Amino acid sequence: MTRLVQHPFLALGIVIFIAITVLVAFRLSTGAKTDTKRARLITVGVVSPLRQDLDIRLAYTADISPNQIVNIFSRVDGHIEKLHVDKGDFVMANQLLVEIDHTDYRHAVNQAKANLSAAKAKVAQQDAVVRNAQLTFDRMQALIKEQFVSQQDLDNAQVNLDAAEAAKVSLQAQVNQMNVALAQAERNLAYSYIRAPFSGYIAERNLDTGAYVSSATASTSTMSRGIMSLHDIHTVRVLIEVVERDIPLVKIGQKAELRAEAYPDQVFEGAVTRIVQALNRATRTMTVEVDLSNRDRRLKGGMFARVEVMVGTHRQALQIPIDAVSRLEDTQYLYVVREGKAQRVHVEIGAHSGHHVEITKGLTGDEQIIVAGKDLVHDGTPVQIEPLPAVNRET
């Protein structure tokens, strides 16, 4: 101890040596624990491929349209006397919607009836003239045989008969004209009562009582909206645009499923009903119509919808969750577990169905596919597997 006191540098060196020794020992023990942690296996979630029938679907987005839409216009001139319905009302076919002031049209009918009666009276009067001319002519024919009258008298009787018959024909033509005029007046009177052409809902009402309407307003005019708008939504339709490569797949009668944002948990079923046999030159797509029954009237015109058309079925298709597939440039790959290690497998994919995708090349169907944790492994990484619960392919 006396020597250490006499040599302080020697004592300091001994202390430093001891400290370094203790630190190295601690590092070695800590390193061993770190190596133990590094050697711990990565746990991944795996599933087995499904092999079952797969419906081939073409998916589109579109707007829902009523089966029929009509803007209600007046076919006669006049002021709106009465509105019998308003926006949101459901009306039946031939139900009275609007009355146009029909005072003038009733007068026109009455006038036409009076004119017709007068024309018929003139025909009856002329008929009497014809009969009298006929009797005179017949009498002249009898008297000329006895030479009591001259041939001139007989000729005059013939001329009078012909003139009377011609006058009757002219008056009968006037009667026909009056019948036409009466029919026109009655039709205008009927047009002043505007009725629903089909059952549906009143979607718009653009005019009020007292507004003037004209028969000259064209229903095709983009500047005129009509008195009101009637929508038939007992059946609704969706127009989808099919790209050129999918045109051979779509046929009339194929089943379609529609999902609307207003009813996210409900699937509405319909069918392909019409195919426009021509492509839009600007978009290179073909319009296809899908009709859906809407008896409960839940679907409304203008709703946004997602439509899937079933165009075929792949029998016993090999399917895996789409989340298991990764993409690198133009290739798709996934990881399978073989002999306790992750192994990358390049695959080719086919059709999609929900959250599952068809594998057409690269798998046999007996593999364990890594879904959860696929981003934590690479080719050859030791892994520990944990089976994931089976998920229905439609979810």
Helical proportion, percent range:
25-40%
Q: What general form does the structure show?
A: elongated
Tell me which oligomeric state these chains represent: single chain
Rg of Cα set: 47 Å
Strand proportion: 35-45%
Mean pLDDT equals 86
Q: Topology as H/E string?
A: HHEEEEEHHEEEEEEEEEEEEEE
**Helix count?**
4
Number of strands: 19
Strand order across the biggest sheet? 2-9-12-11-10-13
The span between the termini is 83 Å
The domain count comes to: 5
Content-based structural category:
alpha+beta
The major pleated sheet works out as: 6 strands, antiparallel, barrel
Unreliable residue runs:
32-37
Structure overview:
The chain has 395 residues and is an alpha+beta fold. It folds into five domains: 37 residues; 83 residues, conserved putative lor/sdh protein from methanococcus maripaludis s2 fold (Beta Barrel), CATH 2.40.420.20; 88 residues, Elongation Factor Tu (Ef-tu), domain 3; 58 residues, Beta Barrel (OB fold (Dihydrolipoamide Acetyltransferase, E2P)), CATH 2.40.50; 89 residues. It has a six-stranded antiparallel barrel. Strand 16 and strand 17 form a beta hairpin. Helix 3 runs antiparallel to helix 4. About 2% of the residues have low confidence.
Give me the secondary-structure topology:
Elements: H1 2-6, H2 8-38, E1 42-47, E2 50-72, E3 78-83, E4 90-91, E5 96-100, H3 103-145, H4 151-191, E6 193-195, E7 200-205, E8 212-213, E9 228-243, E10 255-260, E11 263-280, E12 285-293, E13 304-321, E14 326-328, E15 331-338, E16 341-353, E17 356-361, E18 369-372, E19 383-387
Parallel strand pairs: 1-19
Antiparallel strand pairs: 1-18, 2-9, 2-13, 3-5, 3-8, 4-7, 5-6, 7-9, 9-12, 10-11, 10-13, 11-12, 13-17, 14-15, 15-16, 16-17
